[in-house]
Fold these 4 entries.
Entry 1:
Amino acid sequence: MDATYPTQTPATPVYRTNAEHERLTERESGVSQLIRYVVGLVRRNIWLIAIIVAVAIIAAVVLTMLQTPRYTAMSTLEIAEDTQQVLGEDLGAETTSYANWDIEMNLNTQLEILRSRALAERVAERLDLASNERFFNAMEAAALVELSEQQRADRTADMLRANFSVDLPTGTRIAELRYTSTDPGVSAMVVDAFASEFIQANLQRKFDSSAYARSFVAEQLEEARVRLENSERELNAYAREAGLIRTRDASAEGGNAAGSMTASSLLQLNTAANEAQAARIAAEARWNAERAQPLFSSQAVLASPTVQSLMQRRATLQAELDSARDRYLPDHPAVTRLRTELQATETSLNRAANEVRNSIRANYQASAAAEGDLRQQVNTLEGATLAEQDLSVRYNTLAREADTNRQIYDGLLQRYRALNAAAGITASNIAVVDRAEVPSSPSSPNLPRNVLLAMVLGLALAGAVVFLRDQMDDRLRIPEDVESKIGLPLLGVVPTAEDGNPVGALDDPKSPIAESYNALRTTLMHSTREGLPRLLLVTSAQASEGKTTTSYAIARSFARVGKNVLLIDADLRRPNVHKTADVPNKTGMSTLLVGEASLADVAVRSSYPGLTIVPAGPIPPSPAELLSSPRMAALLEQVEAEYDFVVIDSAPILGLADSTELAALVDGVALVVEANRGRGGQLKGALRRLRALNPVLVGAILTKYDASKGGSYSYYGYNYYRYESDENAPA
């Protein structure tokens, strides 16, 4: 199973620092990771990108030089709102014939007319381009002398449309007309002809539509006049025959609504009767509410200024009487006077209140009498009106027909007059803003634009190639690939040795390789829940990835901090520990496992204090059987009890069973991966073999890493901080 970091108590400072580091690492944004990935990708493939971009730029320059220069002339037109209405209310005023929502459709229609074949044919006919040799030379086409006249006109129109373009910038009414050819004079001449013919075609359409409208309206006007005369003549004859007197209601629409005097009088009296009824109902309701309540509870009584004044006077006298009674005897003149005044005030108050109530009753009685009189007059006129209505049925039908004919006639007459007044006047809503000038420089080929486009396309192509190449290449190039491609935690990164001798670099504690293994030592001390694994197996997927050097460096690093370390060379096929540590290899693991020697006989003290080495010994015929024997398990139990830390250098995983047998017997397995060589698929296959025995995989070590080739940041190369001699150190 995958290794996890140990849980530590907050009281230990080193674990608080480690946890804080993990939190900061987890908070690193995805954007930063993406930028790091892109920068590394570019650095690794900078020459490939440069070659692709250079080829694209060279191709663009060559193609540009081979092209014939072409010139584009431009003319601009303003397409205003249409100011003329054929059947509108006012042809002289600038009124819009299109709704706001339809303006865009109108502009697009005008643009399509500019692109139409009919307009191209008008331009070709005006300039006589079908027989113009200069035009065909400018279009890089041969003269069409062998074709018929109609075929030459069709081919000329096709060439005009193919090289003509029109554009309408957003938010404007200014159309930009462009024509391109190899002759700048022809380009300017043709684009001006397009602008002029477009205006002429627009005016011709308006004139044709106006002439047709005048003829049509004249015919309709004559028919309407005859119908109006006949209908009015028939209406007057029927009125004389029936003896009806009709009036025209000026308030009605058009002032032509007819009505009888009797009906008008009935309408007025009925309206007055309804108003009198409403007034009577309101007065009756007020009187009923008034008489149903006590006199001095009425709002009308209390609202009377006279009543309010008397009530105030009564309150004042009552207060003075009460004060006099407290001061004098009941028969005192002052008490008698105040009592008399109070009684008189009470009498006046009652009289004033009754007058208010009587006025409400009188108002009600007057309203009822007025309503009765009006109702009587209405009843009298109703009979006369009913008799007249029987005679008005035919009259009303004839009157409506006459009114309809009059409205139609008036409308047509007004439009006919407007059309006659505007006859011959052709107001165009299209005007030339800028006429075309003969271009002084070619519009194509544009070398700077083509080079820039080639550069952009080259970068895009290079990016696609680099991305596909990176996706298809599963080699582990940078430290981030360890976790992303094989799913193991990264224990450390070991840079390449500058002189090609990594073992010699270990003797210099200030070298980048020595510093990297010191950092690896710190990581291993916290690689499992129990801390440092007592038995650590160091292996790799394939040979020559640096596992022997790594095993020796780890053992030396822990011996350096005072631990009793044993380094075992369990690679019984191609042993290298004795060469790296410079110890004899006459006896070793093979002789120990076959029972010909004991651990004390084969263990060799190295020249480095605290480090003991068990070399591989003679190569046996069947290493896998020896490593899976009970003697191997017993040996590991023995060395675990005698030493603080045991490092086992084993054979590669792929194709061999040696490392998989040992992985089940140790406390932790570290996988060594060579940068730019180890492949994700290969490593995943090796890990599947290891995980079949459920080992403790503490992580992976990336060796022989070159930051310049990996394309990552320089701190992976351990060059971001170097030692200085004392004389060069800053004060």
Entry 2:
Amino acid sequence: MKNCFVYIFLALFAASCSSSDEGKNDTRTVFKYNEMGAVTSLDPAKASSFENIWVVNQIYNGLVEMNDSLSVEPSIASSWDISEDGLTYKFHLRENVFFHDNEHFGEEGKGRRVTASDFVYSFNRLLDPKVSNATTLLTYVNSETGKAFEAIDDNTFVIHMRQAFTPFLGILTMKYFSVIPKEVVEAEGEEFRRKPCGTGPFKFKMWEEGSKLVFVKNPEYFEYLGSERLPFLDAVSVSFIRDRESSFLNFLKGDLDMVSGVDAINTDEVLTADGKLKDSYSRNMKMLTQPFLETNYLGFFIDEQKSIVKNSPLKIKALRQAINYGFDRKKMVKYLRKNLGQAATSGFVPPGLPSFDESKVKGYDYNPDKVKELLFLAGYPDGKNLPEITLSTTEQYLELAEYIQSQLSEFGIKMKIDIQKASVLFEAIANQKVNFFRKSWNADYPDAENFLSLFYSKNWSPKGFNYTHYQNPQFDILYEKSQSELNDSTRYEYYRQMDQLLIDNAPVVPLYYGQVVRLVQNDVEGLTSNPMNMLSLKRVKKSKS
């Protein structure tokens, strides 16, 4: 396998060597990882899944970016100013950022410099719902005037807001807001999804969909680490092996440099019972792990206008609360996930966000006495006459569902497990066809508003992400007040009040907060992890072989 990779990449890179490389060692450093999911587009307007986001992040840049500490840093914008009323964002652009070379840039195809007008074009494109679902992220820009985005000159880009929205700068770090060249997009049309052109540390080389994706080093990239121009790697290769065991075996053989996520790792093979890397493997690999801004949960569809709710006991709040108290989350995380994650015994908002405060938002923990009390209040003492409830999930979470099923049965709560394909279940949840389901939410941007927006009444599915159809006027008032609140302390207090309301009304069962887990070969340096689980390869080094 290794020899095959080397042969392919020597051929690919022969044509991409610059004159400055002549006479140097021809051995190239290629970072290889496997994607068990599907990359569907290399257009940043479609960067809605982790699979797409990770590859798009290697090709493109935006105005700003998020560092590993979740602070917003300059990218193409060297600096910015925000008006006191939060209605005007002015970005000052670097003058040394160029698009990748492309045949659609004049006769020589040399990549041209990025200007403010490129951002006007890129952002206006996102206002079209046929192009991207990022339109919801631009709700508060002043698009009614047609001048939400303005190029004052080549170096100055301005965004005009109709309402202040404090998380907006963080939203701009999302890959949707990457800059793209109009002439290439319009020349390629639909093919831009597979023939991208950006400004990033790596340039697109080839894509055999479902098989292999290759990027090569951008020798003109604008960022440096000290005196060294980024990136350090010569290329990135993404394979698409769907089988977990096959993918993991390739990693153990050294044919992959990284595997990411608990679901991609044979945890029994390489980890101890408490989630540490076994000594026998630590000589060849290292584990990167930290909290992930993700909440895994069970959701109840509670819209009583729908027949599946009218005829279900799950419409009763006391029963939903009983289910929340009815199983031990801490044991679940310890034994089923080897402590990779944290039991969700606080609110829906995960730790790692500045508003998180488990002393102020009280969630659910295992409490048999409360279960019995709440079942009595719900009209089902000791579970007597309680109809069987059905939890819809996927094969991947069957063991977790069986654990909850077993613990709830001790209180007379009978639960059936309905296993569906992920795509089928997603469609069913979005279109109100199931009323008890397993789901997760990870941060699009590092602000609690992103999690709480799932329960705002104007975000009801299928148009929005409020899959439970939770509706609470008090929650909505707090949510709307938080949108324009410029004082962080006040806004965080609104968030905590919303989170507590949510927990008390129990439209969800928070299960656990996620954990970023990556296994990396020891010859890889500079690869970091972060609470957003973003993959950045521009500072990664790998020993030449």
Entry 3:
Amino acid sequence: MNAATIKTIPLKNFFRNPEKTRYTLSPNGEYLAYLAPYKNRMNIHVQKIGSDEILRLTNVEDRDLAGYFWATNERILYARDFGGDENFHVFGVDVAGGNDKDLTPFDGVLAQIIDHLEDDDEHIIVGLNKRNKQIFDPYRLNINTGELHMIAENPGNITSWMTDHDGKLRVAASTDGVNTSILYRPTENDEFKVVLTTNFRDTLAPLFFTFDNQHIYATSNLNRDKSAIVKFDIANGKEIEVLYENEDVDVSNLSYSRKRKVLTLISYVDWKRQYKFLDKEREDLQNNLENKIGKQYEVVVGSSSKAEDKFLVRTYSDRSLGAYFFYDKNTDKLEKITDVSPWLDENELAEMKAITYTSRDGLKIDGYLTLPKDIPHKNLPVVVNPHGGPWARDSWTFNPEVQFLANRGYAILQMNFRGSTGYGRKFWEASFNQWGLKMQDDISDGVDWLVNQGIADANRIAIYGGSYGGYATLAGITFTPELYACAVDYVGVSNLFTFMGTIPPYWKPYLEMLKEMVGDPEDPVDHERLKATSPVFHVDKIKAPLLIAQGAKDPRVVQAESDQMVEALRNRGIDVEYILKENEGHGFHNEENRFEFYAAMESFLAKHLK
């Protein structure tokens, strides 16, 4: 391979914070808010459309803000945690500056947004696990003073709450660990009553109420393999209409116009995002924007003014983080606000292509292959990159890790192994109790497929992943040591016993379900399987050099997962590099830590694959 033919792009260009990102539009359509660095941390800024004057609203220096939204034209709410502990607090700050206040100032308490209450300028509804760390009670929260009023008490098994279009709390979901129930009440003065109970394998996920607040729209896989969008009689617990289903993939997203009170579109992902339009006005808007911007980009309509005449538009592709645009429907004028990463030239980046192969037991596995640009695609060094979750999926989009690795001359293989979401119930259930077994076989089969295509050099294959992908990385070098020359584990699980025993308290309602999906440490048969598939107990099989990265505050994959692996390997004299960050949680969010990790990965892969 002649990597010298590839123009090397500086590492920091892939992983630096954008100069301006996560734009949103004020309800009156007159102001933009966005995140931009202040002392290397992403903070909120606002700007009147048409003006060059910028006001920074927050001054957080220790950690990027997690997210924000316009509560009113005068006030913005934002979320932040502390050191990566994922106990997010809700803060509020005035758009004019000032009154920056922690509205949920409770140590060790996680705040979840239940309803923005768009028609109430003083309150939102939040869920807090203040009374009991395992469950969330809904509160009406004053966004100026922080005054809280509990509006329902969680009896101990409710996992989510839903309001109607008037902001009334009328639907909830509960679990006993393996069975899920939908609860309903006609008014807030009534008691919640169970209207439907299903096993967790069956999904009826409420999306929002019909515009008369009588029925709901939901995602449902009841009596079908692939989830569909349905209209559901919530009072009587029965499906009354199928709006859309797809024979190949799950469908789960439904959008509507709040102003016009019409359903607008359904979106779903096969190899990339697709739309099924329900409203001509919304379809015309999409076609108009795509014609103006270009069909090679994914064009996403983001926030809009309350009048739905001004819109923020975001573009993406596999080779670009895209740009933000402001569109005024009244004048049909589209203006570019900014490119998200203008320092990256998409013409120098690699194309992400959809691929398919068949697992050894006959399952169709979809995935993505990114090959380095401008060099022959034969006998390449490869980074196999299984996704986290594991009940998630990879998609066609810009991925800075993938583009960075391709720019360094590696082919990158991503696969939606069994259990990946979006492919129906059977495909998901095929992953149950298969950590380190058939799920791992799907990854190994992808490696074999790539070697048989002549693309991969069988002696220069690495595996890298985060979270579940980190587990798959460790399992790969433990149970198929012949496949991999080296490995990078990023906040990955090494011991399935300690993983099951250290989940966050608010995951406890799902513990019985997790036992069915991963395994029950108390069951003798499961116990043996969990031991057999926990890499930490089989380090004697590992031959490949290993780089491990871990956040000390990670609440999901705790530091001990990496510590015990490092100790076991070093005791055997295996080459293992360890990056531990005290100020990080589940993944490195601070820019300087990202730079350090990817620089270490770059030299590690160069040492062992080239």
Entry 4:
Amino acid sequence: MNPTEEPSSPIKFGTLVGVFAPTVLTILGAIMYLREGWTVGNAGLGGALLIILLAHVITITTGLAVSSIATNIRVGAGGAFAIIAQSLGLEAGGSIGLPLYLAQTVSTALYVLAFAEGWAAIYPEHATWAVALVAFGGLALLALISTQIAAKSQLLIMAVVLFSLVSVGLGALPSESGAGMIHAPQWWGSFEEASFWDTFAIFFPAVTGIMAGISLSGNLEDPRRSIPRGTLGGIAVTLAIYLALAYWLSRVATPDELTGTMTIMVEKARWSWAVLAGLLGATFSSALGSLVAAPRVVHALAQNNILPASAFFAREDRRGEPRNAMFATAVLAFVTLVVALLGGGLNFLAPLITMFFLLTYAMLNLVVLVEQMLGMVSFRPTFGVPKLVPLVGLVSCTSVMFFVNPGFSLASVVLALLTYVYLLRHRLPAVNTGDVRSGLFLSLARWGAIMVTRIPPAPERTWEPNVVAAIAAGEELQDSYRLLRSVAGRRGGVRLLGVYPPDHGVDRDELPHFARDLQHDGVFARYTEIEHPDLVAGASLALQVLHTTVFKPNILFLRLVPGRELDVDALLTTCRTYGLALMLYRPHPSKQLGDQRRINVWVREQGPDWTLGLRLSNLDLALLLAYQIAATWDGRFRLCMAVEDTQTQARAERYLGDLLRLGRLEARGAANVYVGSFPEVIAEAPPADLSLLGLPRQPNMESMQRFMDAVDGSCLLVRDSGNESVLA
């Protein structure tokens, strides 16, 4: 292709050629001609009808679900992948798109093997493996030459298939050879060939043809119209044929004939050559349809940068065909075919296809059920279905998967989950797919908020740091960023509150930038900006609003800035009013937080009682913060106390030891008790990257300043709100 040449638009099809024909031909394919008789012989007429109906319960509910959502969204290229990705995100779409692609690719090998079996009925002297390889080469060449030829050839093949079914129906009438309805049907089989669920697994690929039309969504003129009409019309027609054919087979042959002869339909039809022609045409067409549809899935995955070497697989030729994806699919299908020829043939491939398709169907039903349960205004399908439909489809798919093969089903689910986790961790590019994940989590949050209002609060047991960081300039956050990240950890949150004077030239990108950095580090972060000339008064106004939210803050954080007057008494009054704790931070001018390993918590003497209660005297928050920060740093903290004499020292050591033990803090905490006055013993304490000290109810800021000057490191002054308890 010339790099300067613009690719033409891909060929578009209508309902008949694009959806109905590939759906019908894929369903009326290999399994119908070669395994429905075996199913009736092994399971009996009643067992076969049960298997057919159960398989169609899954297919019908999935078809209805897909039809519903297809009339609500603009279905892009990739079929089921596009539908799932637009609802649950690219990660979920990719985790199902890969199994779907593998299922359709493996289906190509299955249909080629079926074609070879049919050919062997005409020319038994021809080696099956040679016929399979030649047939695969022919259909691969046809698929690569022209998608339009491949699609339109299906109408001719459909006519041949329908004529073969006419021949089958006439085979039920008496003929010169004595053929006709001569056997009473056996209603329940012996299941000597396979168990009920193994029989179901071999039969189920017969009804997976709905993916053939849906996967061509990118080549449809009007997917919203064609997918529902073509899919449901194809299901209805083929269901009637399968039920009628099961009855016909039970009347024209004995169970031994049905299980012993895979080409029983050929032998019992009025014109054997017509059935052979239908068998060869349908299997070849099904293989062709899968080989055309599968590359569209991998091409859609690549266009969203989900696959390794996505640029290679996303490339198109001048006609808009995914040429590289088609070559790769052909190679993979060929390898699968060779493995099947060496390892068990059609019955070996059928259960594998069953698992992958059931997983895809389950996810499609889940998508519709989620959309319906959210009840968002944007979900307005022109083809509506009751919630029971996708629910039945989801339960049926997941249940049948584990009934058929628990081990392989678990492996399929694990594969999908691992793919999802991989895609989630590798952070796919932000693409506006219009998915509903935010709506899903919003609904869960709304439900949680309602439940919170109904359940009595337990702040001591449910405490997590939810910090409001009030700032007047962006450089304050640069010094405080690491501490805020350490305080919040993975479970807490930070709301950045910018309080700016009116008409002050501030960089409006600062707060969003810091919020994004915190989110990137795994911290739940938001930001708010207000205009007010005074930092404390502006923060108070913001807290009046935030106090009424569900996830209301419980800590007010401010950085102590040299030269800026701060009314600490007013701050403490504001915090008491709204039930907040207070954190005042002074970073070390050069060391900042140092190595982020060691923390000292200075504890005032607790005499004369030295008793531990559920709430301590302005010590709970300091201990909780020390533990949280130490856990984030993977460091340790030390409780430091100054006492007057050695007798008091022994009581203080027992008190701090009990505090660490009862507070479950021993894993990261230790204690030191020093004899002497508080200012004097500061130099005796081990060096720390961060020192914490409790603020009295009426603090003496000069005394606090002397403490911070004496400590060789960053300092954090804290005041409890009364809702914290380290012993809870």
